[in-house]
């Protein structure tokens, strides 16, 4: 069997569904070839032997550079479009989608048997002008529509999505980052994840951020608590991405393995999504690889570019290949670490993390006293050909509510595929939407919102609200 064929098979094997088969196949091939273990000679093949992928960010306009594609095709078995799937690239004008450059990258990846990470569906940065100027419900709906449309377009072609990117603030507060999306309400992140799950049920859904490498940092802890909360409440989340842009201000932390294993212990995969290291410190690169190999659910590493000249931080020379495409010492360190890596047994052997304090979920009142004064509901729609997102605002009357029910009749042919912040009695026809535990109580004159996504046409729904 030729090296090339072996590499291609290793690449094809490196999908989430085929991890175990891949490890077995790679091991079997190696044995047949040499009668003893043979070290893999590329990053992707070596990672595949560990049941993982090794990827890189790719720019569509470099796919015509043969020096670039030679390294890409030889070394990597996963790609992340560096800019081409971002909001400004895929929806430059509202409801006008442009997938040309992203599709080019996906096609290239497919032709080489590489998997694709999607990056990113909802982010405060690289928003098109029309979105930057939006706020409130209009922005929430536009964001959900974007998530739905883009995830639907790439359904079946993207193994994992960075659904939400960089939603937490730096520094010691552990707070959310202020942004137009954040100002639509704290639940914008879970709403984005729900919309992504509905659009592509088979893609792994990740939360991705930077400066979340050091386990003791407030930002790391805040992301941890959000993921823990999502898992407890059943918000669909499958993975956490650590960008891991490391430099002298954000050095490799000695507790990095604790960070990886702590997230993994929540029941999510962990991926290193944008690795680059100032000066390409070979020791730090080696440590990152060893830490990932030590955590069973750390299932892949992506570096943020191929040659230093491809890097968004080119002056830091942070990548594995120099400007001429030559392997740097960091490359050798990474390949050696991958080849030496021992496939971990489950459970991981890392020290269990100290669980950060969690806020217990608020228990709903056991026997709520009946309210009076009622409630009102209004519905706003964001429609596209074949589907819609409805946002329903429930406003309490003079007595406030302890609970509420909104009844609406969907137009014939319309079917609900997904709903958030409510429990529904049916998916079509006349539907009762009732409050969930955390949004039943509304003070007099105040409001809460729930929403749902549907196929068909959603126009003409008239909500009626009943308070309890
Ligand atoms: C960077 C790209 O590499 C640049 O080409 C672009 O000009 C700006 O964005 N965090 C992320 C990535 O999630 O999308 C960013 O990529 C780097 C920081």
Summarize the structure.
Residues 1-39 form the signal peptide. This protein has 468 residues and is an alpha/beta fold. It has 13 helices and 17 strands.
Descriptors:
single chain; 468 residues; alpha/beta; eight-stranded parallel beta barrel; 17 strands; 22% strand
Write up what this structure looks like.
The chain is an alpha/beta fold and about 475 residues long. It has helices at about 5-15, 20-35, 45-50, 65-75, 85-90, 100-110, 130, 135-155, 190-200, 220-235, 255-265, 280-295, 330-340; strands at about 55-60, 80, 115-125, 160-165, 205-210, 240, 245, 270-275, 300-305, 375-385, 385-395, 405-410, 415-420, 425, 430-435, 445-455, 465. Strand 4 (about 160-165), helix 9 (about 190-200) and strand 5 form a beta-alpha-beta unit. The longest helix has 18 residues, at about 135-155. The structure holds (3S,4R)-3-hydroxy-2-oxopiperidin-4-yl beta-D-xylopyranoside (XIL). The site of (3S,4R)-3-hydroxy-2-oxopiperidin-4-yl beta-D-xylopyranoside (XIL) has 7 residues, from loops. Its EC number is 3.2.1.8. It holds the Pfam family CBM_2.
Bound molecules: (3S,4R)-3-hydroxy-2-oxopiperidin-4-yl beta-D-xylopyranoside
How do the SSEs run, as a string of H and E?
Answer: HHHEHEHHEHHEHEHEEHEHEHEEEEEEEE
Radius of gyration, in Å, reads: 24 Å
Mean pLDDT: 87
């Amino acid at each position: 069997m030729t090296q090339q064929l072996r590499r291609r098979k290793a690449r094809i094997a490196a999908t989430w569904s085929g991890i175990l088969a891949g490890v077995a196949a790679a091991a079997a091939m190696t044995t047949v070839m040499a009668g003893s273990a043979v070290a893999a000679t590329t990053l992707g093949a070596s990672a595949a032997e560990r049941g993982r992928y090794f990827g890189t960010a790719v720019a569509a306009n470099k796919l015509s550079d043969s020096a670039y594609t030679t390294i890409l095709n030889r070394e990597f078995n996963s790609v992340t479009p560096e800019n081409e799937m971002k909001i400004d690239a895929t929806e430059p004008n509202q409801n006008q989608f442009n997938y040309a450059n992203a599709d080019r990258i996906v096609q290239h990846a497919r032709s080489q048997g590489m998997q694709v990470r999607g990056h990113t569906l909802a982010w405060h940065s690289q928003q098109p002008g029309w979105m930057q100027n939006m706020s409130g419900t209009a922005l929430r709906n536009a964001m959900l529509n974007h998530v739905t449309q883009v995830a639907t377009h790439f359904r079946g072609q993207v193994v994992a999505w960075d659904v939400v990117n960089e939603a937490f603030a730096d520094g010691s507060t552990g707070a959310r980052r202020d942004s137009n999306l954040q100002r639509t309400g704290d639940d914008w992140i879970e709403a984005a994840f729900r919309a992504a799950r509905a659009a592509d049920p088979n893609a792994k859904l990740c939360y991705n951020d930077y400066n979340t490498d050091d386990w003791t940092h407030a930002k790391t802890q805040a992301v941890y608590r959000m993921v823990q909360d999502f898992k407890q409440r059943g918000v669909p989340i499958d993975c956490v991405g650590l960008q891991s842009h490391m430099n002298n201000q954000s050095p490799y932390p000695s507790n990095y393995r604790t960070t990886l294993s702590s997230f993994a212990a929540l029941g999510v995969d962990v991926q290193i999504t944008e690795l680059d290291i100032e000066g390409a410190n070979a020791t730090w690169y080696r440590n990152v690889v060893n830490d990932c190999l030590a955590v069973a659910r750390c299932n892949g590493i992506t570096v943020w570019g191929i040659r230093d000249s491809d890097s968004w931080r080119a002056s830091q020379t942070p990548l594995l290949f120099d400007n001429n495409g030559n392997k740097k010492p960091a490359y050798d360190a990474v390949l050696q670490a991958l080849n030496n890596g021992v496939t971990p047994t489950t459970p991981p052997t890392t020290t269990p993390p100290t669980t950060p304090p969690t806020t217990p979920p608020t228990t709903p009142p056991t026997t709520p006293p009946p309210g009076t004064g009622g409630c009102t509901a209004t519905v706003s729609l964001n429609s596209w050909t074949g589907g819609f997102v409805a946002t329903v605002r429930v406003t309490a009357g003079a007595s406030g509510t302890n609970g509420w029910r909104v009844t609406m009749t969907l137009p014939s042919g319309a079917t609900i595929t997904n709903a958030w912040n409510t429990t529904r009695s049916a998916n079509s026809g006349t539907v009762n939407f009732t409050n969930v535990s955390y949004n039943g109580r509304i003070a007099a004159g105040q409001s809460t919102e729930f929403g749902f996504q549907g196929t068909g046409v959603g126009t003409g729904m008239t909500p009626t609200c009943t308070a309890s």
